[in-house]
Design goal:
The complex is a heterodimer of chains A (466) and B (441). Chain A contains 17 helices and 14 strands. Chain A has 466 residues and is α/β, with parallel strands linked by helices. Chain A has two domains: 22-275, Rossmann fold (3-Layer(aba) Sandwich), CATH 3.40.50.1980; 300-457, Nitrogenase molybdenum iron protein domain (Rossmann fold), CATH 3.40.50. In chain A, strand 11, helix 14 and strand 12 (377-379) form a beta-alpha-beta unit. Chain A starts with 13 loop residues before the first strand and ends in a 9-residue tail after the last helix. With 441 residues, chain B is an alpha/beta fold. Chain B is globular and about 65 Å long. The chains are: A alpha/beta (466), B alpha/beta (441). Chains A and B meet through strand 1, helix 1, helix 2, strand 3 and helix 3 of A and helix 1, helix 2, strand 3, helix 3 and helix 4 of B. Strand 1 of chain A pairs antiparallel with strand 3 (85-86) of chain B, so a sheet runs across the interface. The structure holds iron/sulfur cluster (2 copies). One iron/sulfur cluster sits between chains B (38, 40-41, 59, 63, 123-124, 155) and A (43-46, 49, 104-105).
Chain lengths: 466, 441
């Protein structure tokens, strides 16, 4: 490959994207609904690609149907394909919910999917029908994270029902790993807080082995639970950015986009807490404080001890970290949490990059780090070639991000600690932990060991104690 | 378990029981979870291994992101093909047109990466918003002095197979533009993509025979080789699906004859060498071919025999991209004692399916463009032990408690050639005999 070129300049093209397309995000959310089969309204290829991409990360069967646009569909519209598609899905899967994400093509030709759903319901009045959820997810308006958040809001706004305020809370954790979701559920249970967590793909995308093939994998947030989101006493939403900024070259921007919690407050007057992903001590403390307030109980002993062990580890390992330089990349809300954590252990983030385009990344990073790092490059709308071209100058010691950045870390001869999505070149992407004291501990150990391993391998002495 | 879709009936066949002719090349049924991809995908996978060309995808980001370096198609030199370039269209471009963004992208990328040619793929929405891909390509071609080739591949215009044809048409525009001198005994290898370095194995065999390999299309491919491809005396075409069309064009336009071969399994691999020797009517080549085959057999047979003894009685389900490959696999599996009980492909042809019928035992299920529901039911019905397919089928196999061998384009093990047969046997053996199944069945 051509040698490093200093100037990244502005590029018209995207070179090795550090983001994915919107229906992928929506499909992950729909996999978090119990009994749901996602259907992408558009051509065949999109669904197949998205399935393959998810399968390589989660190592689970991922069934996503497509309405399979053909040439005629593109000219005359997708109404017929939509209803045949739904017919066929119902016949084969008997889903409780069909989650529809519109691909670029169907959005471009201006399909009225809400209209199609209405018509379908009317035409099949006598049959038991699944619930329909529709997220409008053209990728020219946003990345997979926009698709993700749109699908969360679309699902909640379609299914939430008003009711007498219950003792339960809603929690919308954003795009985290199945293992993270399981940990989050443990935390809430330990606090004794009844909750509806959405989307819950902790089982559907990380199932145990089956004795019988399951057409629709077990698990997920049920329709019944989703109805209850409308009567929760409070919502918690994790994330600062939520893709609410302006996506470059979009005509309307996403500023008006409401997150699920915002929608619930507007529609049903449910208050909400908003905070970052609980990665690192400070952000996790903030999260636990919210849980303490809500439950009126102190943090359970088990988690206090995890917190104590984490601080203990920070101390034990601090010399390996101080002054090390990191390049961090991935989804905006994830990298914000990671950078916040790295600050706590003395690792300097020299570049934080995301393919997300909210334009809000810089401000959010400044908030969590107190704006201390004057030289930290914070870049929205970045792609991997962009990162590749400036890393030489930045002299990083470590890369933290998804596995698509591997080629850069390989070229630089520096370790990559794999977090987030996708992790296509390692096992256990679905079980990587990021959040809470426990998840931070895992991250901490992995980062520390990557640094130690590098040192050990590059030392002329074969140290057995490090 | 729910029923199969009625519309799919004529794409499923039970050997010895059903009478109808296989209905293939049909678009997938709406609402099914097809294992198939789109036209764009077909063209992209075929052209992708051309390593010194720029591959720019004109469309929204997904189509490019999901095809970034997905295949293990290796290059011995430049690696521009392993980068993913997209115009990453935005709402503004959808409404006002994406031509200027395409133009700027092409120019900047050509300057930055210095490719030998550029392929520009159109995707679904480009087919709808009406960008004049052709005009932009022409303009850049003129300004930058290199071939900029439009690949008109909106996904909705058909299946992956249609994409192969589009790719062949794009290649055909390059063929004939070079004038390299080539010896009489020379071939082009068409339709091998150098997955895990397979092409290099084949090159070695042909070289040992004394044959000059002119162009490899597209594995470890180079633009200049394609330009002079018409200079070879013969096109040796593997996997009838993807490259036949180019072979036909080259026959019509340049009088280069072609032959179909397969490199999977010992029998087919050896035939590939014999047939080429026969074509050149050369006793010397034939005796060289025989020598190679003898040597390789001598080396392989004892090893394969050991595998056969251990694998005898195992049953396999095969679901791969092209039906031609399925045929080779059935034979290769037989060689190591494994019986094929389900055969399917995404893009089979009626003739291939007939061949498969003749090759298979009665009761074998033959299927075109299947989906997870069907596949899981077939596997159960037939009691298969091993599944051979692509990444999308792997988790299905594993969840069903079946061994799995990746025989698609993302594999990292060479499975073609003699060496490949050993790798194949090894992999089948490893997956069939692993102790993990005791916990799942
Ligand atoms: S179907 Fe169309 S939009 Fe989808 S991946 Fe293929 S070309 Fe891209
Ligand atoms: S057309 Fe849109 S939805 Fe389909 S793969 Fe491309 S970016 Fe994704």
């Amino acid at each position: 490959m051509t040698g490093a070129i200093k100037n990244t300049g502005t590029w018209a093209s995207t070179r090795n994207a550090c983001k994915l397309c919107a229906p992928l995000g929506a499909s992950i959310v729909f996999k978090g609904i119990k009994g749901c089969v996602p259907m992408i309204h558009g051509s065949q290829g999109c669904a197949t690609y998205i399935r393959r991409y998810m399968i390589s990360h989660y190592k689970e069967p991922v069934d996503i149907a497509s309405s399979n646009f053909s040439e005629e569909t593109t000219i005359f519209g997708g109404r017929a394909n939509f209803s045949t598609g739904v017919d066929n899905l119902v016949a084969q899967y008997q889903p409780e919910v069909i989650g529809i994400a519109s691909a670029c093509l169907s959005e471009t030709i201006g399909e009225d999917i809400h209209g199609f759903i209405r018509e379908y319901r009317a035409a099949n009045r006598n049959k038991p029908l699944p619930e329909f959820v529709h997220a409008s997810t053209p990728s020219y308006q946003g990345s997979h994270m926009d698709g993700f958040h749109h699908a969360v809001t679309a699902t909640v706004s379609a299914l939430a029902r008003k009711g007498k305020t219950g003792g339960h809370i809603n929690i919308f954790p954003g795009f985290i790993s199945p293992e993270d979701i399981r940990h989050l559920k443990d935390i809430l249970s330990d606090f004794g807080i009844p909750y509806v967590l959405f989307p819950d793909y902790s089982d559907t995308l990380d199932n145990p082995h089956w004795k019988e093939y399951q057409l629709i994998p077990e698990g997920g947030t049920s329709v019944g639970e989703l109805k209850l989101t409308g009567s929760a006493k409070v919502s918690i939403e994790l994330g600062y950015v939520f893709q609410q900024g302006r996506y470059k070259d979009s005509l309307k921007g996403n500023q008006k986009f409401q997150t699920a919690a915002e929608w619930l407050r507007q529609a049903y007057d449910i208050p909400f807490y908003k905070g970052g992903l609980p990665i690192g001590l400070k952000e996790t403390d903030r999260f636990f404080k919210v849980l303490e307030d809500i439950s009126g109980k102190p943090t359970p002993e088990r988690h206090l001890r995890e917190r104590g062990r984490l601080i203990d580890a920070y101390v034990d390992g601090h010399k390996y970290h101080f002054g090390k330089r990191a390049v961090v990349f991935g989804e905006e809300d994830l990298v914000i949490g990671i950078v916040s954590f790295l600050e706590e252990i003395g690792i300097e983030t020299v570049l934080v990059a995301s393919g997300g385009a909210s334009g809000k990344l810089k401000a959010a990073i400044d908030t969590v780090t107190g704006g201390k790092r004057k030289h930290m490059l914070v870049m929205n709308e970045m792609d991997f070639e962009g990162i590749n071209e400036i890393t030489d100058e930045l002299k990083p010691d470590i890369f933290i991000g998804n596995s698509k950045g591997y080629y850069i870390s390989r070229r630089m001869g520096k370790p990559l600690v794999r977090v987030g999505f996708p992790i296509h070149d390692r096992f256990g992407g679905q079980r990587v932990q990021h959040i809470g004291y426990k998840g931070t501990q895992q991250l901490f150990d992995r980062i520390t060991n990557a640094l130690i391993e590098y040192k050990q391998e590059h030392s002329s002495v074969g140290y057995k104690y490090i | 378990m729910s029923s199969f879709l009625i519309e799919r009936k004529r794409q499923i066949f039970r050997s010895g029981a059903d009478q109808h002719e296989m209905l293939c090349s049909r678009p997938s049924v709406a609402g099914s979870v097809s294992q198939r991809a789109c036209v764009f995908c077909g063209s992209r996978v075929v052209l992708y291994p051309i390593a010194d060309a720029l591959h720019l995808i004109h469309g929204p980001i997904g189509c490019a992101a999901y095809t970034w370096d997905i295949r293990g198609a290796l290059s011995s030199g430049p690696e521009i093909h392993r980068l993913s370039f997209s115009t990453d269209l935005r709402e503004k471009d959808i409404v006002f047109g994406g031509e200027s963004k395409l133009y700027l992208s092409l120019v900047e990328l050509i300057v930055r990466y210095q490719p030998k040619a550029a392929f520009v793929y159109s995707t679904c929405i480009v087919g709808v918003i009406g960008d004049d891909l052709e005009a932009v390509c022409k303009r850049v071609s003129k300004e930058k002095g290199l071939s900029v080739i439009p690949v008109q591949a909106p996904g909705f215009q058909g299946t992956k197979k249609d994409g192969y044809k589009v790719a062949c048409e794009a290649l055909a525009t390059l063929v004939g533009t070079g004038d390299r001198e080539v010896p009489e005994i020379s071939i082009n290898i068409l339709g091998d993509f150098n997955i895990a370095g397979e092409l290099w194995l084949l090159l070695d065999y042909y070289k040992r025979m004394g044959i000059y390999v002119n162009a490899t299309i597209t594995g470890d491919g180079r633009v200049d080789d394609v330009r002079s491809a018409h200079k070879a005396s013969l096109n040796v075409v593997q996997c009838s699906g993807s490259m036949m069309y180019l072979a036909k064009i080259m026959k019509e336009e340049y009088g280069v004859p072609f032959m179909k071969v397969s490199y999977f399994g010992l029998e087919d691999m050896s035939d590939a060498l014999y047939e080429v020797a026969k074509f050149f009517k050369s006793a010397a080549l034939m005796s060289k071919a025989k020598e190679i085959v003898r040597e390789e057999f001598g080396r392989l047979m004892p090893v394969l025999k050991e595998y056969r003894e251990k694998l005898e009685g195992k049953k396999a389900a095969v679901y791969v991209g092209g039906s031609f490959k399925a045929i080779s696999l059935i034979k290769a599996l037989r060689l190591i004692g494994v019986q094929t009980v389900v055969v399917g492909s995404q893009t089979g042809t009626t003739e291939d399916y007939e061949l498969i019928q003749n090759l298979c035992d009665e009761g074998t299920i033959i299927v075109d463009d299947s989906n997870p529901i069907e596949l899981s039911a077939f596997v159960k019905e037939t009691g298969a032990d091993i599944f051979i397919g692509g990444v999308k089928e792997r988790p299905i196999a594993y969840k069903l408690g079946l061994g799995f061998c990746d025989h698609n384009h993302e594999r990292k093990e060479a499975l073609a050639g003699y060496e490949g047969m050993i790798n194949f046997a090894k992999e089948i053996y490893a997956t069939a005999m692993s102790p993990v199944w005791q916990f799942t069945r």
